[in-house]
Amino acid sequence: MKKTFGTIMIALLGGIGGALFFSQILNKQTVISTKNSSNPNPNYQLVSSIPTTQTGALVNFTKAAEMSVNSVVHVRSTVTSSNYFYNPFMNPFDYWGRPRQAPKQESSGSGVILTEDGYVVTNNHVVEKAEKIEVILNDNRTYTAKMIGSDASTDLALLKIDEKDLPYIVYGNSDELKVGEWVVAVGNPFNLTSTVTAGIVSAKARNIGILPDQYKIESFIQTDAAVNPGNSGGALVDIEGRLVGINTAIASNTGSYTGYSFAIPVNLVRKVMDDLVEFGSVQRGFIGVSIRDLDSKLADEAGIKEIRGVYIAGITPGGSAEDAGLREGDIITQIGDVSIASTPQLQEQVGRYRPGDKIRVKVNRKGDEKYYTLTLKNKDGDTRIVKSDQVLNILGGTFENVKQEESAKLGINGGVKIAKLNNGKLRAAGIREGFIITSIDKKPIKGMEDLENTLKSKQGGVLIEGVYPNGIKAYYGFGI
Asked: For residue 150, which of 103, 157, 309, 359 is within the disulfide window of CB 3.0 to 4.6 Å?
């Protein structure tokens, strides 16, 4: 009975407030995304003033604030409550003959204007599954935003608003950022307007285990700048006001700032944004190795004295590393001109390249330094750039071929599953995640190629038929 009560309490607490939290225990602290609920009702308390540095030197943050505050926006998203459960035995229509509607929730975060014509970067978790996204500028102008694309592996998303001559931020260089350097965090905590806080870079290339994606890249900049719920997607800038990171998470016992905050380095952000603008999806290049951080035992086995670099624990057959001549047991110490000390740092550096790009890799092989040139491949093992089709973008979803065992279980001949819904035609039509498309306008859809080719030739209305994983068949009609 106690266990049941505990489960209910967890479920209730998860439903109170609109924020979506990622959690991971880190030294008995909780690492959470800094997205805000629609009605946080914070308890405000007086705090002591921040002391000067030990030398008594004063740092002036006015330039950093002036250069960045108008480029940081409030991002407000509306989503269907994740605590609403579909009951297949319930009549889907209420007493007035209208379809039952899942309750809506509003949540909010921050974003940063990247271009004068309205491209805005934010965190993926701020706008994930949003049906409506609004961007509010620092001067209170409000716009409906369009989702250009998102990347769960880095927790980034790109929005677009229809406006010109916007105050955009200037890119900095996160590679040049040094531990101990002053930085400024700008965002919209607790639904307040743009708020500026300051701190120093405490560490770089931090992996805190917060992202659930299989191909995640976690190489956060750690700072002690105060970041609170609502700051997700906001700017981390240097003393000159140049963007060096996107604030994403905090380590906390309470859900609010208690000393650590984490930002995605801008050099990675810039690559992801360029991909989303050009291709509609992120183009990831892979080395084709399994890796481990180097320790004293592995260093002894590898016959090296300096414990610095990343140990290659395995080689993917047919991958870039095998093609170039790398071996299991090699120690990667450099990518391009950047020295490599840890796995997060390696993942970040490789994550900046696309399939087909060539990178120069320095390894230590039993005490001997060697250089190799690798041609990166995508996760499918080739060098193709895979563009996100425009029609599929309009539909607003992520698609995958149905696995053979699921197809056999449901008695269908192939099909395409909606793995994830974004803002678009499918969500507007009432389709739920997991729906398997089996035909469009009576034409069989057996896989992704059928889906893309069929939709490319369509104009006007379409009729989509399919089945849900529980066996319930359904059809939907809408215009494209």
From this structure: 157
Please name the residue that has the structure tokens 């914070």: 42
Report the 10 Å Cβ neighbour count for 366: 12
Q: Is 472 contained in some domain?
A: yes
> Is 37 known to be catalytic?
no
77 and 158 fall within a common domain: yes
- The tokens describing 392, both together, are 């599929």
Question: 108 catalytic, yes or no?
Answer: no
Of 375, 406, 428, the last residue of a domain is 375
**CATH number of the domain that residue 191 is part of:** 2.40.10.120
Mean pLDDT score, 20-26: 34
Please state whether beta strands 142-144 and 132-136 pair in parallel, antiparallel, or not at all (unpaired).
antiparallel
353-371 pLDDT, tens digit each: 999 999 999 999 988 999 9
Does residue 110 have an active-site annotation?
A: no
In a domain, 10, yes or no: yes
Whether 264 and 246 share a structural domain? yes
Cα 449 from Cα 469, distance rounded (Å): 21
pLDDT band at 100 (very low <50, low <70, confident <90, very high): very low
Q: Same domain, yes or no, for 272 and 394?
A: no
Residues 6+ apart with CB under 8 A from 344: 205, 206, 207, 217, 218, 219, 220
Specify the pLDDT at position 176. 96
74, 110, 153, 155: which is the annotated catalytic residue?
A: 155
Each residue of 385-396: pLDDT tens digit?
877 665 677 788
CA 247 to chain centre: 12
Concatenated DSSP letters of 45-63: ---PPPP--TT------HH
Domain of 346, CATH number, reads: 2.30.42.10
pLDDT at 35: 63
Q: Which of 68, 71, 150, 232 is catalytic?
A: 232
Domain containing 139 equals: 1-38+59-279
Minimal CA–CA distance to 283: which of 292, 274, 294, 291?
274
Domain boundary among 220, 244, 279: 279
289: which 2 tokens?
Answer: 């190795």
* 398 is a domain residue: yes
Active-site option among 37, 74, 125, 150:
125
In a domain, residue 384? The reply is no
Alpha helix (H) residue ranges in 16-159:
62-68, 124-127
- Over pLDDT 90: what percentage of the chain? 54
Specify the number of domains making up the chain. Answer: 3
- Let me know whether 140 and 229 are in one domain: yes
Q: Three-state SS for 443?
A: strand
The model's pLDDT over 401-427, given as tens digits with 9 standing for 90+, comes to 898 889 999 999 999 999 988 878 898
- 147/245 same-domain check: yes
